[in-house]
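Morning!

As promised:
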Amino acid sequence: MSIRPPNINPDKTHFYRCLRRVEQDVLRMGSLVEESFRLSHQCLFDRNIDAGKKITALDKQIDKYYHQIEIDCGTLITLQSPVAQELRMLTAFMQLVRDLERIGDYAKDLAEIAVKLFPYPPHPSMGEIAAMSQHAQLMLATSLVALTELDAKSGQAIKQLDDTVDDAYEQLYQAFAYQQNIRGVLEPILLLVLVIRHLERMADHATNIGQRVFYIVTGIR
Amino acid sequence: MTRWIAFILGLTIGIAIYFWKENQKNSKIKKLLSSFSPNFDRVDSLPITSLVRREFTYVYEQRQQLEKELAILQDLLFFAPIAYLQVDEENQLLWCNEQAKQLLKIDRWQPGKQRLLLELVRSYEIDQLIEETRRTQEKQIKEWVFYITETQKTRSLALKGFSYPLPAKQVGIFLENRQPLVELIRARDQTFSDLAHELKTPLTAIALVAEALQNRLQNPELGWVTKMLQQTQRLSNLVKDWLEISKLNENPTQHLHYQSLELQELILASWETLQPIAQQKEITLTYSGVAPISLEADRDRLTQVFLNLFDNSIKHSLPQEVINIEVQVNIKEIIINIIDSGKGFSEPDLPHVFERLYRGDPSRTRLAANFSQHGSGLGLAIVKQIINAHNGSITAKNHPATGGAWLQIILPHKEQN
């Protein structure tokens, strides 16, 4: 993130150091969330159940970062009374970590669904769902890059990427909802509907992160 | 007159003090110079200013020399075929070489610009490696898979990182790209299964012909053909096993047919099959555990697991020994311990026993190969693949009490509602 301490004000260097530390924690949390998303993908589509166990451990860490960052941001805002972009950054961080945390939670849910899906034969639309998941992961990666670069334009551009996921969601939903001559139990279909729902929500949260980056840079909501 | 004497006396004393002081100063400087550089030669004849100047020139030359060496080393590091990066106290990237840029896709960084490493490479593993190194102040080695999310798919990169603590809380990291190795291993396995596949049909044909011949021949030809048939059978089994492993490895779950079964019954039935061999050595089986345990699994595959394990245990047990089966159940998992009183695994073999075609002690397995069909070195590999496909795990160790092999299988357990 490109905010650099202005050399004129030496009193502020401590503040900038703290800000860097928070930034770094946000990025760490981001990479953990990315990792859990990736693991949930492996869990669902490569039938790698071991990945699910790792997600549970990751989720705990993510939660720890989430609380830590919230507290740190609060402390910095009250003690250092930042203004303008720094203030926007800290407030945006506080909301952004919630988005990240939500994505992590959904990843965990996906892993749980994967375990339930395990005994059933793979559904024919698994490929499309995998593509959807891949796209949502790309969105998360893009939003994190936008955050590190404080790039308002690419932050905003994630909205367009979200359309693809929304379309995929709609299409898959129709496919599941109007499927006929289903043999056997309904569980796999229900689970898959939940999967696409979760993926769609994850993509939304990634879009939110992009929006927050836009806000940090421009101050416009 | 006395005034003159006083004046001259004063002057003399003054001059004496001056020379004394001057001398003291010079010797101090010389001492200083000689303490600085070991090859300072005391040429007292030279004036002190020349000595100092000479020393300065010498130091300056030395510095230039060192700078040149540093530049060469840096150049070498820059063009090294292994990725290197260095971060400062606050985890900002100070420097990285060309290889690191390519490997980690660090394209948003210009030298001299302060950026957090995490901003450029979103890898929690590298970050943790750095933190760990800084905390312990010891070099660390770690292996992990680094992922790069792209539009179509996620690219994975197997990396091995070596980190070194540097002064001022900096950390230097070498990264080795192990992806080619991983791909080679995959290619090798693929080639082997392709080959096995190609061998399957001709081998079956040979076996059939040999069988047909067996009925029409007399000794000594009959003996030869019987021997040929045995060896063909062995080869054919090896190929079959290999294909089985490959299939399970690629698609662990699709080849399983889940059904409800009772564990104790399955274990005892497997033992029953091996009874003839066991009886030869008078080996007995004891089963302890809560009854009955029902689980969802592939019956044939699980039977194969126990057949392979029992076969191994019987092979490596001395006559009249006992093989123990202990089954424990908790809410989440079923734990099956298979313990024999044989020689156990040799310590260096332990990490490798589940690898394909791994043979511990060559002499022992060769003997075993003649004894039964499963001496191929694939038995335990198959067991592991099957257990993994069932979402379970298997570990091999030596039992502290009996000294024999101790295989522990853990299978997931769903509580019946």
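The mean pLDDT of chain A is 84.

Hope this helps with the figure draft.
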